[in-house]
Each structure stands twice: as structure tokens, then as C-alpha cells.
Amino acid sequence: MKIGTLNVQNIKGNSVYINEILKEIDILLIQEHWMFKFEEREIGNILHDHDFYARYVDEDTPISQKERIRGYGGVATIWPKNIPSHIKPLLEGNNHIAIIELYAKPRPLCIINVYMPCRGGKHTSAEYRDSLDVVREAITKYRRTYTILLGGDLNASLHRPNPNNLDNLLREFCNELSIITPEYYPEEPTFFHHDNKSTSQIDYLLKLQDQNDDGIQQVSIRGQQSTNTSDHVLTTGKMYIKPHKKAKTEPPTTTEYHKPKWIKCDDSRYQSSIDEYLNEEPKCQNDNTNIQLILDIVHLSNTLHTAAETAIPKHKANGKRTQKKKGRTPWNENIGQASRIAKKAHYDWVMEGSPKGQNCMLFNNMKATKKTLRQKQRQAQARIREKKYSDIIKSADLNQKLFFKLVREQRTSHCAETDTLYLDGHELQGDELILKGWNTHFNSLGTPDANQVNEEECLLIKEILEDPEKRSEIPDITQMQVENAISKLANNKAPDHLGLTAEHLKKGGATIVNSNEFLNRF
């Protein structure tokens, strides 16, 4: 893979040269594209059949089209459109440092594209240190799992005979993080001053010393080209990696079971269905006793689910669960229209630079439309409250169940946090005391009570399980024991991992208890 870096000094004015070198370079790091955030689409129009990730100087304080000034700064990383799934922009960086990751073999690649502050400002050294800190943080975070490539316009030289203050900062930084130039790195100028008197090498492609074999290699510096309008020249290098798609981590496939509405169940039809399906020959048979037991349990589970679907109208044992949406604010046509008007007013205000003041028409319009939106929302909430109170009054005589349900909803507190916890007769308040109280409570639940544990019974059970002869003396389970065990199961509980509830067994009645198939599987 061929990678290059170039300070383009205006991507619009240097678009011919950029598209020319993109024909032979896989990934291009550019600096000083001179575009603002609202001009992002124009960058896409300039680059043919390529995608990019750009950072802009006005990211923190957006500049509108009416306020546009002469462009400056900005960085962008460009790659062909045929490898979009291999590349992912990273959030680290700032408006002059763009970082991407490339999924590749043998290791993923982290490309740090930088445009460092140049000399001439009052606080250049401090700004340069701040930028180095951002790069240091990214390298420290990714160096263990990624191959690191640091490239761009560093505005400092690693080879200048008489180093200036920025050169010294860069060299100290490289020594600290073991950043090196590749072998046989050419010491040639990459920047030619417009006065034609001075040149320097300030554009680099660098790698980490402990990643010498995987890093950038065979770096070369192009000379000045007739189509290149920038003061900088192209620096290229090669990396022996192969892009590949990142393996998608699929979530584990689990079946969601719907809880049957047993009140609608036709019991006789449910029992007859169980008889019918249990008498069918299982589709799978296996000579291994343990595997056959698992297959029998699955067959029984499928039988109970199928019988429930047959006996309960509109019931599906498994499928997508529709999640109820809670806590949403009311919405109607009036709120929707007011929301669109408020968004439009806010957008117009932001595009004009977010001016403030009582005499500003856009600011006053934005506040007025927001006030109208909130008014519509309060009116809708008030109508919902009035309807709820009316339903409570009407249902007091006609529908007692609905009445108490509405009253309970009205009295229920929607606060999810606990202010006071009562534990063993003591009142606990404050986050620390409540947390300690919960710890004590759950520790007591998880610790067996010594008075309720019969050590002799535990030792007898252990002895029976470990001795095959004694284990064979255990009598078979009787139908009466099965019936008693099923009758003690609690109703309206959550299903188990097979989607079965206590009602699946209880509704089967004598059909399921007396079934030889069931006893064998039990």
C-alpha cells in the first residue's frame, strides 16, 4: 500500500495535482485544505471516486457562509471509495489532527495526520506542546494493538543543522516515544519558501522503533511539479499490509419466548394437542443416552409450545418482542408543526452567527417559536391529565378493576432513585449508607442459614451420588410425586430458558402427568 503526505495550501487551487497523484497513491494525507465546515460537500466534489475524513478550523466556532473569510488550516485523509468498510475515523484529535484506523493484516493501522503550529505567533511553543500532547495520547493508547503511522506537516525539522525551538520540541518528543524515520530516509527539502532563498524538510512519514518491520518503508520525496501550486512537495512511502474487513461480532442468537395469555386457553384442546404431539415419533434419535435425553427434552418443550399455539388464539411461542415505549412526551400534529418552525428559526439564527440582543429579529423569533412549542406540549400534557381524571371518575361505578388500576398509576411515584432504605428496622439515608445497606442485604440472601442446613442430609446425598450401587437403589419417581411437584409451582412467573412456565405443565392436567413420555423425560 502506497501512502503520501502533502501540504496542499488550498485544496481548490491545487485540485488538479491532487487528483493526479491520487491515481497512484492509496491513502493521501493533506494539510491546509483551507475549507470550513459548511464547505464539506465541496471537498467531496473535488475528489473523484474517493472518500475522506477532514477536520476544520471552525469546528468549535462554526463560520457561516456570510461570515466566510480567507481559508486557512485544516487537515484531511483521503482514500479510494472501494475500501470504505476497512477505514473508520477516530474521535481523538482536534481541528488540525485527524486520526483514522485501517483494518489490515497483520495488524490494524492507526494513521495520525497532523498539521502542527508554525513559527511566528506569540504562543507558538505552547500551542506546539499542546498539539504534541494530543499526538502523544493517541500513540500511547493505540501503540500496543495498532501499527502507528505519524505523517503530515510537522513545521519542524529532524535534520536541520542549527535547530530552532520547535525542532528541539519535536526531537525530544520523538526520543520520548521512540519515533524514528524509516531506514534510508532521504534528507531532501519538502518546503520551498516563496522567496526562493530558503528550503527545509518539515513534512514527514514516521513510525515507531518497536514496529520497525511493520511500519512505513521506502520513503521518497518528489521534486517540484508543474501542476503543484503548493510550496510543499509530496512525500510518499510504502507499507506491506493488506486491508481487510473487520469481522462483525454478531450477537448470540437467542430465541425470545412470548408469555401465553392462559386466561384465553382452551384447556381441552391444549390437552388433546399434547396427546397428539407426544405420540409422534421424535425426528432425531441418538445412541448416546445423554444426547438422547437432551433431544427428548427439546421434543417435549416443542410439544408444549405447539399445543399452546393451538389452544390460545393469536399466540406465537417465539418471535420479535414489541417493546413498549415509556416516558415519551405527547405528540400531535400541532406539536409537530411547531417543532418544525422552531427548528427552522434556530437554524436561521445559527447560520447568522448566533447573534443576541433584544433588537435582533432572528434571536427574538427563535425564542418566540421555542415558547410556542413548549406551550403546545404543555397543552397536550394537560389534555392527557384531564382524560385520566375523567376515566377515573367514570370507572368508579362501572369498572372497579380499571378504577383501581388508574388510581394506582396516579399514586405511583416515577422516581427511580431511593432516598431512604429501611433494613432490619433501621432507616438508612444518604448514598453511602444505602449502598452499604444493599450490600448487607444481598450478602445475607446469598449466605445459607446454618440453622436451616442439615449436615447429615448433605453428607448422605453426597455419599449416594458418589456410590453407583447406592445410586441404583434410589426408587423411581412416581406419578403422585410428579403431580405434587407440579401443583406447587407458582403461576404468573417468568418463563425458563426453554420458554416454559408453570402453566404449561398445570394446564396439561392428567394428560401430562400420566403420560409415559413425560415421566421418561422427567
Would you write up a description of this structure?
The chain has 522 residues and is of the alpha+beta class. It is built from 16 helices and 18 strands. The protein has helices spanning 15-21, 40-46, 124-142, 165-177, 267-278, 289-311, 333-351, 361-398, 400-411, 431-446, 455-466, 468-472, 479-487, 502-506, 509-513, 516-521; strands at residues 2-7, 27-31, 50-55, 75-80, 87-94, 97-102, 104-105, 109-115, 147-153, 179-180, 191-192, 199-200, 203-208, 217-221, 235-238, 242-243, 420-423, 426-429. The strands form five sheets. A six-stranded mixed sheet has the order 3-4-2-1-15-14, with no helix packed on it. Strands 5-6-8-9-13-10 form a six-stranded mixed sheet. A two-stranded antiparallel sheet has the order 7-16. Helix 3 links the parallel strand 8 and strand 9. Helix 8 (361-398) runs antiparallel to helix 9.
